[in-house]
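User: Quick sanity check before I run a bigger batch. Here is a single chain. Can you write out its predicted 3D structure?
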Amino acid sequence: MSDWLKKDRASEEEECPDDTGIDERDIEQADGEVVAVLLKDADLVRQSIQLSEESLLTSKLHQALADGMEKGRKRSARQRGKRMSLQLSAAVLAMLFVLTAFVRISPGFAAIVKDIPGFAGFVELVSYDGSLQSAIDNEYIQVVGKSDERNGYTFTVNGVIADAQRVVLLYTAEGPGISEEDTPSLSYELKNENGGNVVASIGSAHYFREKDNKDSVVQDYLDIMMAPGEPVPHEIQFKLELGSEWLEVQVPIDHSRFDEMTEVIDLNQTIEVEGQRIEIKKAVITPLQVSITFKSASGNEKRLNDFIDLELVDERGRSYQTKSGMGDLDTEIVRHFQSSYFQKPETLTLKAKGLLMSDRGMKVVIDTEQGKLLEAPDGRLKLGEARQSGEAIDLSFELSQADDPQTVMRDILLFGFNGVVRDAEGTAYSITRGTSYGTNGTTVSRFGAGDRHRVTYYYNIPNEEYVQPLTIEIEQYLGHAFKEIAIPIK
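Assistant: Done. Predicted structure follows.
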């Protein structure tokens, strides 16, 4: 067990007869209690432990699952969603996705749960991220346990999971009116030790969980992906709004626990797909992610949007998926993959099946007075509506992705951030992404109810006396090219 965890258990070790500081009976009891609460359907659990099999605790894990299954009630899995909050410029494209998974319990993890007050509720949260689960299984966590209380509200930062690129803050919010159902999003502020903004993309794992008491308590985590070149702060000032109160906790980040745990691999290899060139610059392996930097050639004729089925694969065929990135593949992007750090693979290969790319210079021509689409790249894009709404004109476009090679729907950009619409005389007006009601400039795209391959986009333009028709340049569109890509990383 790590020395830093042993320090936190000094008082307990004095009372324990064995060298580990933990009585085997305590471990068995803790395992039974946690498993009874959290285990899912047995068959599905076995499918979820692909990467955990490399853990030194695998044999004990299987035994704990078997022993606890009779006590645990079966509950069906359900997909979870993540809310996103970005603190980078609009040019940064960061997407976080959640895949259905199941909780896995190890004896070491059960002991950690027992020692950290209020930590049991985070078991299910971190189980949906393979990197975080692997970190927890390997006791890679910093205990914080600091709180702020005010007028009946309590804000506690329970722990931190951090490396040189990523910081995960585990926290608990308590107080009147605080619940998972009524509080889907809590406002927060983050500052570094110098009082400056934390330059990163920040996601939350909040979702509704089945629990007996849904009132007064919310447990969640903030997932902070530092922007390229931005160092992890030594201290984060974490402020959270509960009710009308702003509560604050100073969260220390101990860099000594990960300073020697970063591996940088210079690659400088170029791949080419139908004449489009991309340089793979470097890979950075840390306990919480593998980051790979891609830079597209400036002379590429096509607009490069994404890879097809991008993944890392080790010598045993284990796949490490990518669910987020910072930047734009058409220029330069850093993609983040599930970490292989604790699995210690002998080889790691970057694989893809091709590229998603589209022609440059495409456009849409519409007549907002008649509500007609006059020109589009092809029949897959249709005008849903064009209607006046106060000082704006709300536009909706429907895009069919039925022939897209991806297995999941993609919310492609379509029109660029800070895009413009031009009337027949060339006068430019701003176009913003809007809601289905055309109100606040945020993005809301939905899948068509009758066609699972259709996505609807909403935009707003000023309600002006336009000289018709109007032209909008397309930033991203459908299109792809297949080619098997395999680049050795290590």
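Confidence is low (pLDDT under 50) at residues 1-22, 24-105, 436-450.

User: Great, the batch can go ahead then.
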